[in-house]
Amino acid sequence: xxxxxxxxxxxxxxxxxxxxxxxxxxxxxxxxxxxxxxxxxxxxxxxxxxxxxxxxxxxxxxxxxxxxxxxxxxxxxxxxxxxxxxxxxxxxxxxxxxxx
Length: 100
What we know:
Blueprint: H1 2-24, E1 26-35, H2 38-53, H3 55-63, E2 75-86, E3 89-99
Antiparallel strand pairs: 1-3, 2-3
């Protein structure tokens, strides 16, 4: 019976390690940007998110047209944007989860 218990403990431990490794590949990042309108401020905020995540992804993003909410090499989820008057006209804060 103790062999069975040891195997069960090993399975639980390995599942925990695999879960920790999987979640370690995801990051939550936020960035702030300002611009003359909401579109420009959102672009700047998303750029800050990518720069805080990966300069390589950011450079690919810029060279591929820079669509807000996308990140080359990452699965993007939970994108939220909050904009208000200020800065150069609008200030936006964006937050997202990026996973490899």
